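quick q for whoever's on today - can somebody do inverse folding on this one?? i tried earlier but teh output was garbage lol. tokens:
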């Protein structure tokens, strides 16, 4: 596996329960700035500007917001009706269960605070890590919780290529299966749709089959976001890749391509008992 130096630091945050404009989400909790997984397609690489880091540094720094649990206790007091009808996401610009969580347990502590408080809304977790299984006892105490795993392929070699330090996709699928066996509500985040799909029905079916076998029945689907800052970073990191493969990236931004792929996916979903939780996501409007 590729290695690189990781800079870690303990910092204090000014806020932790932050209002969000993401679809179906009222607040986000990000206990870390930066993410060790360093996925080449990650839109959150723009976060570096807030900690004097470059886009190209993404994956090489993780700053732990050590006061996150204390801040959350104070923020929750301000919520009306104990948050009934509201949704909190862990996390939007980092992975809440990356390796640093094994040391700091900040996401776990925040979840425990939500459980102790008796939070009446929904808690949604999105991760690529089997470390989420460590908080199963806490998850079972929450009144309304779901856990999503990002699935980009069924091929560990492909996931490793684009998601340098993230757990293998096979581990993520196994995590979904275990969560389902434990009675935790789950979803899969099928995205971003990587170029090897390019309206390739059999490749897409492999992923849907694998997700289906875990017992998960809800999913999000997302087109790849190729805003300039993401595209530039990917071109640098994937400079040794076959040029025809890169061309497939560019075609993924055309309306015709997306329409073709959307139709293919929606037709395939009819063959399964999946529930699509949101229309297929494409955020061209995100940071550029």
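ok took a stab at it. sequence:
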């Amino acid at each position: 596996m590729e290695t690189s130096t990781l800079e870690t630091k303990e910092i204090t945050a000014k806020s932790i329960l932050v209002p969000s404009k993401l679809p179906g989400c009222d607040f986000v909790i990000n206990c870390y700035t930066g993410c060790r997984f360093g996925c080449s397609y990650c839109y959150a690489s723009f976060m570096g500007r807030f900690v004097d880091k470059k886009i190209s540094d993404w994956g090489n720094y993780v700053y732990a917001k050590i006061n996150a649990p204390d801040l959350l206790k104070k923020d929750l007091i301000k919520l009306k009706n104990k948050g009934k009808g509201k949704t909190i996401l862990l996390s939007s610009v980092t992975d809440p269960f990356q390796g640093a969580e094994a040391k700091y347990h900040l996401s776990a502590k925040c979840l425990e605070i939500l459980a102790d408080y008796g939070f009446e809304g929904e808690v949604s977790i999105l991760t690529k890590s089997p470390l989420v299984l460590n908080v199963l006892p806490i998850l079972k105490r929450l009144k309304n919780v779901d856990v999503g795993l990002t699935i980009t392929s069924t091929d560990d070699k492909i996931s490793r290529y684009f998601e340098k330090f993230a757990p293998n996709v096979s581990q993520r699928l196994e995590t979904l299966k275990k969560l389902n066996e434990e009675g935790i509500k789950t979803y899969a985040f099928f995205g971003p749709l990587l170029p090897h799909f390019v309206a390739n029905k059999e490749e897409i079916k492999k992923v849907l089959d694998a997700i289906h076998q875990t017992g998960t029945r809800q999913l999000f689907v997302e087109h790849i976001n190729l805003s300039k800052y993401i595209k530039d970073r990917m071109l640098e990191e994937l400079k040794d890749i076959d040029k025809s493969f890169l061309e497939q990236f560019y075609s993924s931004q055309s309306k015709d391509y997306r329409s073709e792929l959307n139709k293919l996916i929606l037709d395939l979903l009819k063959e399964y008992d999946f529930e699509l939780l949101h229309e297929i996501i494409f955020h061209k409007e995100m940071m550029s």
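fwiw The mean pLDDT is 86. also Residues 7-276 form a domain with the pyruvate-formate lyase- activating enzyme fold (CATH 3.80.30.30). so keep that in mind when u check it
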